[in-house]
């Protein structure tokens, strides 16, 4: 008993019962609707479709018969035995003409009589004899005065084929028939008719074609001519007056099947029109007779529904108890777990699902946030790692191994080198394609190689660290990897970049050297074309001179100065000075070599435009010993690298100020995105994401979210605007999602925050 009392207080149990009732009710309604659809509507549609098909068959049959009459009229007009001259030669020929007309009549299936009249005489020829018009209309086919007058006009005056609707005709004074008259002028398609062929067709002949259309149903069938005159009709069980048919003809008749109202009764109307004769055939049946076919099913359906209802209720109760049992058990397990005191306690436990949901949501909140932060930060951490690796910040192999393991980058073993992919030959790509290109270069694994890349702004190059397993000569493998990348970019993105390659090293911490070497090789892009591969070792070989200091060290020295890399520049300077001092050279050659180093420094800083070093260079020229020269050059290198670093920071500061100003202007716009900001400043998405993180310590999403949150808090304090309007006005579309985010950040809802700060 206690259990049932507990069930009556549970919203979840009643929710289950209601849900199962709904699940049961919907199929029941659908099933009932389907049965009704199948029993009534589909039955009606099936009968209408069948009748439309039958009506089309009758139309085609009548068309064939009328076409036959037309062809017979044409044959008569060209028969030399039936010409006016031949008929009036003597009585014998007239008798032959009567026999000939009898043959034509026998060849038609629906004509009761065939008549031939030439307008320059008074005689009319039939299959039964020759008569004057007066005798014919008075004795043989007697009509009323109006019918006689219309027939004579048709015979004597009409130049077009025509049909007279069915009318009562007294035949030979002994029988009465309703006849249709089909008139065809002679000659065929002539402009000045001199004769007429008439066909008499019994109305019963046409109605016999349509009498079986209704089958077991009540209704009426009508045949109308091109002028909408009633030519024939057949009715069963209903009687529709001619004037009611006439009223229907003024309505829209574009649909072959339509529903109409005649009086207070609804009819289903089917109509087809012959393109050959322009006759219309209509069938009308009372719609309510279709319901009579399913009345006998109603009792069965009723009792079936009652049985299903009883069985369904029993199943619903059993399923509700079965599904509620785990909820009740879970509630008992979580009964004492209310982390941080943020759950509603016993006051909210009448709705077990909400209570359980809130409890689990609170317990998993920090976990979800942590996982999200890891996913968001991973690309940034990877880019930072590559940047620091290229700058030579990692000297310890153990430190590198720890970082690689944390980033899940299997860059151990094999050989490494840096390649620079130049974007100078890159055409303007759509935003989606540009992002795909960046993603391809930033990280990838194919054909036994692993690559990590980062965009180097503003040089418009991608620096890519490549790890590979040597299968032959290192230089040949290196060149093949570069050419494969050029081909892949060409196939996917439609352009061929030039690629510069540094030397291959066995240890990944030497990638700063390979990067400097690749940068030196990239200087020779000026001499290359799109799709070329520039290898540092080849360039060194071009410039090698045994009497001078090593050319490769000079190239490293220049790149170290340009990039502000003190370590690389000083190491290269030391190698050049060692090359000068270790060999016996004349005093003049030594001075020339020292002057060349000074000249190299001067040209480099002149191109870089990072400051005025004229005095420092002049001072470096005032030396007595090589040791003094070396010491002065080291101070000059330190000064230049510091200026390069300061210049880079100044540029970053200017860009930072512009980007943050733009974000502060646009953060209330709901469509503000990292892609939109990147497009506005002409930057890549990955670079901008990394740049914002470097400059603000926050991701773009977190930074804009904080701006919006602070603005919303300000408006909650200082305005009386509805909370929903404030949230939407500050760039949020999902109000409920923001309220939950606000609660997690502030420990209360926006409405509670407004109340607290309005006191």
UniProtKB/TrEMBL annotation:
User: SUPFAM superfamilies attached here?
Assistant: Homeodomain-like (SSF46689)
Q: Where do the TM regions start and end?
A: 12-36, 300-322
**Family annotation (Pfam families):** GGDEF_2 (PF17853), HTH_18 (PF12833)
Annotated keywords? DNA-binding, Membrane, Transcription, Transcription regulation, Transmembrane, Transmembrane helix
User: Which top-level group of life is the source organism from?
Assistant: Bacteria
Statement: the UniProt record of this protein carries the keyword Ubl conjugation: no
Name of the protein described by the UniProt record: Helix-turn-helix domain-containing protein
**Species of origin:** Paenibacillus mendelii
